[in-house]
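explain this:
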Amino acid sequence: MTIVVDGREVGATEGEMLHDAAKRGDVEIPVFCYEPKLGDPVGACRMCLVEIEGVPKLQTSCSTPARDGMVVHTRTEQVKHAQSAVVEFLLVNHPLDCPVCDKGGECPLQDITQGWGPGKSRFTDQKRHFEKPVELSPLVAIDRERCILCYRCVRFSQEVSEDSQLQLLDRGDRTFVGTFDDRPYVDPFHGNITDLCPVGALTSYTYRFRARPWDIEQAGSVCTLCPSQCNVSFTVRDEQVKRVIARDNPDVDDGWLCDRGRYGFEMFAAEERVSAPRLRSGRAAWDDALAKAAAALKAGGNATAAIVGDASNEEGYLVQRILREALGSPHVESRVSRGPSRDTLLRLAQPELSAKVRDIDDADAILLVGSDPLHSSPILDLRIRKAMRRNGAKLAIATDRPTTLDGGAGAAIRYAPGGATPFLSELAACLRGDTEHGTASSVAEVLKDAERAVIVWGERICREGEGATTALLDIAAALDLAAKEGSGLLEIPDLTNARGLREAGCLPDAGPGVTETNAALTPLSVANAAFVGKSTEEIREALESGELKTLLLFGVDPLRDFPDTAAWQRALAAADHLVVFSSFENATTKMADVVFPLETHAEKDGTVTHPDGRLQRVRPSASHPGDIRPNWGVLAELSLALGHDTGVTSQPSAFAALTEAVPFYDGIDDAEIGGRGVRWQERDAASRLPGASGAGSPGTPREREPGDPAPDALMLGTYRDLWAGPITELNPPLKFLQPRQRVELSLADAERLGLSNGDEVKVGENGSSVLARVQIRERIEQGVCFLIEGTAEDNANGLLNGSPVAVTIEKAEA
């Protein structure tokens, strides 16, 4: 349709609001309360009033849909008078804090006052006063004198994160934003309200009084602290990050950030930061450290293994080249635990079966399997809530542990820890019509008639063996997802760049581009090693037995993050040589022969691949502290020291080598990636993804520990809490969120064991135990319990041996 705004013809779409249509026609209409990310407009601030021919009164452009032929005026005397009056009214009680307000210089109220305000005030009475500032949360301060009651923060709390903690309290000119009973506002997404606030009423304690807009630069990049890979903008002053704010990309994050990504930047300067290479004897020069690392890898030869974690695509690609081409070893892995075979990965990666993040918005039905997005990929939690709230999407959940999304689900099924495979097999049978009744029937009812269905699944289910992913593919086939537009599978991996590392060749049975390993190995490799390398658990076992001699760890900490800490302790101690790339000092670096510093995502230059296949650019925004070098350069030098020239001399040459080696990345360049990224599935080169050579082995579910469990034993499940890990511990503002180990169990089990909330207990298995506090949860199934992985103390990984185990719980001695 066409409308006319201030004499200009502007194209508009059905249902589009006048404000948005006018903006595309290069006509600016001032707003305070309107923010499309928050959903339907509320027309609360009255700043966007316009005159529409044929309508007697002024209308709010943010809440008035465009109509074909509509004639709109935004600068008539009547409109100017109304808008000027709104600004004047807002400034009656607004304090003159601009010289000291953190929003000064980037404040919409300042800009609108200059452009649409009266220029002077007629009011001489004393302004209203509130206590200022008030601690709304440990991370956010609220200055109620500055608040213009635009309702944005309250709407975010109620309609986006759905925590409903923020409210408008009191009435009339005494109305203010607050929480019930002045409780602190603690929510994993609450930092977004400081971005939404159009004035300086909400400010972050981590940024208050640290910089002014004319002192800073904004640097766009990507957050790599979780698989969400949100687009961010770093606020940089004196080459140091002072703030992280959202950089809108609807295809990835919808313009939101979790608090982990927003406030995690202060760890960049932590005392524990590895800022230079070192040997066991202490800090070393780069040449000495590279020579020592090269000697260690040479000594290992084809009995060397590498595990890659926190790495860019280019870094992962170079690591696997060092292993395969310089050392002749196929033992390269990038997964916390065992994963699907190459054939299964290829079937999962088929473009027609790969869902985009944005497909969730328009889905009729969503199935969540084996993951709680709030802890594993927080922005997906908001995305799924949005789909249910705005478009009426039906949600089905199948997990071993309750999730934060259970309350809105049409069906929520609990299976025992390690029981994803039988459940998914039953669901596939229900969808095929092989069986009509069973545990999975309610989930099948949600999915079977959906025209658009998205299955969001957690990589953790792969730890059970090949059977879980094979059943997942059977479900996709039964629903015919490959033939339905806007449908498909979307993985939540364990690691941030898990997909990119797999596609770069960091797999034991696949090279770059998920090619067969014999195509990735050099003649030296073929002569000295098997085509297929060892998985993570097999690497650990081979180190213990002496079959493998040297281990290269790039951005991983097995002693904290991998199952069975004691076994990894033995494996690392048994290794002849240990070379570690790490951002921070930890238990693993203390055992290393050589330690190299890793860049953070604010310093790195490279690419990462989103779980939906979108390549995104991580751009250097801050200077390297200490004596840190670009990691692609360190790996290229290390390869040269081993007598192998990768040909990589810069980041662009590293990316070019990657795109040449991965067939379906062919032709991608920086210009195509741009600021929004590019999905390789949507390019012509996607047809060059290798085909699976077979149906893939169905595998066998992992067997539980042999022997009869004790009478009071419970099956142990684990999960990774959003706040567990160095990101919380090394950030002073986030330390209050650091979780203590807790054991979650049902009311029935707690009563049977004589336990109450808060009791300190020992959770034990095979002679090992961890201390935890009891937390009774009504939605936990009877006979199971859950612990947190990755805590600083009493880590649940200390009890795990890679498969579900039975544990006993007893009260700890006082």
About this structure: The chain has 25 helices and 36 strands. Confidence is low (pLDDT under 50) at residues 522-529, 695-708. The first strand starts at residue 2 and ends at 5.
